[in-house]
User: Fold this.
Amino acid sequence: MAQHQVEYLNSGGLPIALTSVDKLVQWGRSNSVWALSYGLACCAIEMMAAGGSRYDFDRFGTIFRASPRHSDVMIIAGTLTKKHAEFTRRLYDQMAEPKWVISMGSCANTGGMFNTYSTVQGVDRIIPVDIYLPGCAPRPETLQYALMLLQKKIRRQGANRKQALKRLV
Amino acid sequence: MRRYQDKHNVQKQAYYTDRFNVQPSLPRFEVTEDSLFNATLLHVKGLVDVLEAYVEAGQLVVWVAPKANVSALKAFKTAGYENLSEMSAVDFIAQKGGFEVFYQLLSMEKHERARVKCFVPQGETLHSVTEVYKSANWSEREMYDMFGILLENHPYMKRLLMPDDWQGHPLLKTYPLQGDEAAQWYEIDTIFGKEYREVVGPENRDPARVDARNTVDFSRIGHEVESGAPYSATPTAQEYQEKGGIAVVSKITKEKAKTLKERP
Assistant:
């Protein structure tokens, strides 16, 4: 049997922690942020590295899922072309609430160096973005930091909040 | 030195001027100097009318009429050039009113490359060469996509790279670098509809645009405020962990951290 050490001077002398349902649920959500396996360009290589054993996203509870129905976060990793934009939007719409979006790298943030006719100038033109991640390409540590910031953001939100309409652009 | 141009408002100026199109000329040699090329050319001349032929950059270049492109490639194929490694077009509308279409051929047995070229006036069609070289299939679709040169008898004449409902052909010299109106609003029009243009607004084409006082679109590091709240000059706390901490995870401060002098 595990022996619980009781700190009689803290928490009213009981081995319990007081919290609210909101915090508990959001704590759970923030530690199982499943990401959609969805890469667009070279940033996806860094995303794969972040998911691999060296950087190991799994220890954050972030597991890449092959279906948008399973996913909580969509990492836009790479250049979004105008031809592909409607498919990205469709995948985003297929994800169940609550959902979050990380825009990874310069191309997804602003179009980056592709200031051309065929590139979407910032993915926030078509889907709402929670975290913008600078870099070309961002290193896996940067992506992990973005995920930690997202966890922080999730913990701040209420569990049963009304899904506020996310502003576009 | 390059001629000075006013850089003010350079994005709105037409990007294309002829100075980009000064062709560097390579020295051209007679075909008779190379016996292998000469034999190939004699074989081809027996089958099609050759307008011009020379050796440039170590490769045989043969000009034919646009109507004779299929028969010319058939002649080259019987001469041992079994691989069409590349084909496309070059926009010469401003200079000559048409396109130069080239077919880059490779002969494995002769270790030689040859190029068949023809001039297609703007608006005219060309005959597909997929019956001679299968690899021309996608290349011709790309050529149609990028230049708008239609091909007859192609098995699947459809855009290759751009969406099917795209307007214009992007590799034309007159095509604007940042797209025409249809291109600039393409993703908004296809996903949300045209009435959504006002909600999203035009594209920001200035990659360096930063406005620290705009707290809706920008969040200044160290001075984060709620979205839309007035800009604040007082720094905000940069702590990762929430106040009071969370269960299981504990924060390591710099004071608590130990530095090892040597490996244990």
Notes: The beta strands of chain B are 28-29, 50-56, 59-64, 83-92, 98-107, 112-121, 126-127, 151-152. Residues 80 and 161 of chain B are 32 Å apart (CA to CA).
